[in-house]
Amino acid sequence: MTPGRHAELIAALRDAAEPDRPAPPDFAAYLEKVRTRANTVTDADVEALKAAGHTEDEIFEQTVWAAVAAGLQRLEAGLEALR
Description:
With 83 residues, the protein is mainly alpha-helical. Helices cover 73% and strands 0% of the residues. The model has no long low-confidence stretch (mean pLDDT 85).
């Protein structure tokens, strides 16, 4: 992959992640967990959101958004460290 193409893909991911995108209030703790310690997310976390009335599609969308946004922040920090 060429460097220019890589930059285009990163820019597209950043736009899709919408870092300042609002999330439903009852997602706050879950999304913080996804952003900072994703390895600790459990089925119980997802079930709690489903019990609160959220669909699997909503949960998936919020999860992907938070994970991509966190990954991009880490990527930018790593690239900045290399500069």
